[in-house]
Specification:
Length: about 675
């Protein structure tokens, strides 16, 4: 799932279940306004002991979390804020909107705001990105500015417009700061209010009747959007607690094939697997096999973190809450995964320490969810290997009773029946098929993201959630244990929280829970609305296809509620933003000089990620990690040149070369490869 704001600044927030964003104003390369002569004096910031609502620009308000620091300037027209670590800073100010709102408005608006604070601000606008329009605002968006690779920094601005007024948030921070505090940043941005901004109430609207004609029109819209979005194939299921309203396939099972998708086609569902894992946990809690507050090390003796106190604080429940302060570390399982095992996953986890306090903010750890899932398997089976024990427990306790016979975490079993094949986009925006073996990267993280499923099976799961644990002929588990997973935990954004393997929140007063999933070549979305007695799952065979799954979600809302039909327009706006994002990188690509090429060629080794070879393949320079290889080229930004991967599976991943070392910089961690003598 995607963060509400700043989607291109690598916030480390993989999961949110939010409505699709509203369109942002169109952009152009128009020159920004002239510089302001005098800068605004920055005030001395004061730390906040508790969550605090603050006022600026006379009547604009927002809420900052405890531990942050803030102060207004002398005339209180601006609010300055910073994270506890000091490496992420914000400035909020209010600006009038020009009567003529032509192309380039957003770029002019936010550049003018930046120059009101820093007259020397000279960064080039990379792109404007449509963002989730916060409740009651007319339109919202974000503008991303160019930074140099050596800065390890993100610079952006978020604007929200109501009538003739905009509130602009200027954001400047380290890559680590965005990774560590991205969820809190989302929450702050969502809390901004000015007079006239009021949240919609869709729950008060009269529901439309869902008849056969409505379902067929929905299917037609889904298929048209699939084609526009370039998604090779998709399967969609829509249910209420008693009936399957729609279960249908669209497109083809693989890019370029003519084998059609059906409701029985298996797709990888990525992190949507987490909802199944925590359902297993609730079932075992209900049966008395485990406790939510049971120390994880008691169930899984080999579990540990690099911090002994943090290890002792992790319970079964906390392994699923994304609230422990453990940072996201995904590259470990994208390299050297051919021989990966759950035991190796636990060894890698043992090298990680929390970077924020327990319960302080949302940080997403696939490693920790995997450990929690393997602990469940071990609680039921002490003889089998960890992966086999988990798979057996999930199958016997959840999948079989629900009739989910096509759902499995065993990729070999999945591929013996009707299944889809993965695909992804390169920097040129073109969709390419991926080798199916590339998806084995999750093989040692089964509980966090390895499941395959079908639209039919996901419909059965959704109906169980809507029935609060009841089956047609009994109960799978008690209501209390099932609903415990939906209790709001740490905040992801304003009104959006992470439960246990589920994102929970409200959309225009309508409660929802769900979880998206992204692998390298598949995208899934699962969401249910208890207030509406409705559940939806969308499965696709294209990586990063969230614009499509979000559009289908919006279409369903437009079918059942008397709201404007905007799904297609929103999808088109997102596609333009995605195309612009890729183009901004692709258009700056250049071939290496002979000296640059010769300097990087060779074999390298990383203690964390294993071997990597950089070699010439025909006319291309490629990086070969063993399980995958991709072309690399040079990209230029603010006078600096850096290597970047240009093809799937890790498109746009930057690689920095310094002497005899290669470095991959990720939020809160750097991976270093040292040259190995031939």
């Amino acid at each position: 799932m995607r963060p509400i704001w700043l989607s291109l600044l690598a916030l480390g927030c993989a999961t949110t279940s939010t409505p699709p964003p509203e369109p942002a104003p169109a952009e152009s390369d128009e020159e920004p306004v002239a510089q302001v002569a005098e800068p605004i004096a920055r005030p001395e910031l004061q730390p906040l002991e508790r969550p605090t609502e603050l006022t600026f620009a006379e009547d604009a308000t927002l809420t900052l979390p405890a531990g942050w620091s803030a102060a207004t300037n002398a005339d209180e027209s601006m609010l300055f804020a910073a994270v506890p670590e000091g490496d992420l800073q914000l400035v909020f100010l209010s600006r009038p909107i020009p009567l003529e709102r032509g192309p380039g408005l957003a770029a002019r608006l936010v550049t003018e705001a930046w120059r009101a604070v820093d007259p020397g601000f000279d960064r080039r606008v990379l792109q404007a990105v449509p963002s989730q329009s916060a409740a009651g605002w007319d339109v919202a968006g974000q503008v991303i500015f160019e930074t140099a690779p050596s800065e390890r920094r993100g610079v952006a601005a978020v604007f929200q417009v109501k009538g003739e007024r905009a509130v602009v948030a200027l954001i400047d921070g380290s890559v680590d700061g965005f990774g560590r505090r991205g969820a809190q940043l989302n929450e702050i941005l969502g809390s901004v209010r000015i007079p006239g901004v009021e949240e919609q109430n869709w729950l008060a609207l009269e529901r439309r009747t869902i008849d056969e004609a409505a379902i067929e029109r929905l299917a037609e819209r889904i298929e048209a959007e699939r084609v526009r979005a370039g998604v090779p194939g998709a399967a969609v299921v829509l249910v209420d607690s008693e009936e399957v309203l729609l279960a249908r396939g669209f497109g083809t099972r693989s890019h370029g094939s003519d084998e059609t998708v059906t409701s029985a086609t298996r797709f990888m569902i990525g992190s949507t697997t987490k909802a199944l894992t925590t359902l297993l946990a609730a079932k075992l809690v209900d049966e008395g096999d485990v406790r939510w507050d049971q120390p994880l090390g008691e169930l899984l003796p080999q579990f540990r973190l690099s911090d002994p106190e943090a290890t002792e604080a992790i319970t079964l429940e906390r392994s699923f809450c994304a609230c422990t302060g453990l940072p996201r570390r995904d590259l470990e399982f994208l390299f050297e995964f051919a021989d990966a095992t759950p035991e190796r996953t636990l060894e890698q986890l043992a090298a990680v320490a929390p970077t924020t306090a327990m319960g302080e903010t949302f940080q997403y750890s696939n490693f920790l969810v995997a450990a929690g899932g393997y602990a469940l398997g071990r609680a039921k089976d002490r003889r089998r290997d960890l992966d086999a024990a988990y798979a057996r427990a999930l199958d016997r306790a959840i999948l079989r009773p629900l009739g989910m016979r096509s759902t499995t975490v065993d990729s070999r079993r999945a591929r013996r029946a009707e299944h889809a094949l993965p695909s992804a986009r390169g920097l040129d925006g073109e969709v390419r098929p991926l080798e199916p073996s590339i998806e084995e990267f999750v093989s040692a993280l089964e509980p966090a993201g390895a499941a395959w499923s079908t639209a039919e099976d996901m419909g059965r799961y959704l109906q169980l959630e809507l029935r609060k644990g009841a089956l047609p002929d009994g109960r799978l588990l008690g209501e209390e244990a099932l609903l415990h997973r939906r209790e709001p935990g740490v905040a992801i954004g304003q009104g959006v929280h992470y439960g246990l393997g589920l994102v929970v929140g409200e959309r225009a007063k309508i409660a929802y829970a769900g979880h998206d999933g992204n692998t390298l070549g598949f995208t899934s979305s699962m969401i249910f609305f208890p207030d509406l007695d409705l559940g939806l799952a969308v499965l696709t065979n294209l990586g990063s296809a969230n614009e499509f799954t979000g559009a289908v979600d919006r279409m369903v809302m437009e079918m059942i509620l008397p709201i404007d039909e905007r799904a297609e327009a929103i999808g088109e706006q997102q596609r333009r933003a995605r195309t612009a994002a890729l183009s901004q990188i692709h258009d700056r690509l250049t071939d290496p000089t002979d000296a640059e090429r010769d300097a990087i060629l060779g074999r390298y080794e990383s203690d964390e990620l294993g071997p990597l070879e950089v070699k010439v393949d025909g006319e291309r320079v490629v990086v070969d990690a063993g399980e995958w290889s991709s072309a690399i080229r040079i990209v230029e930004a603010r006078g600096e040149r850096q290597w970047i991967i240009t093809e799937p599976p890790l498109t746009s991943l930057p690689i920095r070369r310094e002497a005899d070392r290669l470095t991959i910089v990720m939020p809160q961690h750097e991976y270093t490869f040292a040259r190995v003598a031939d």
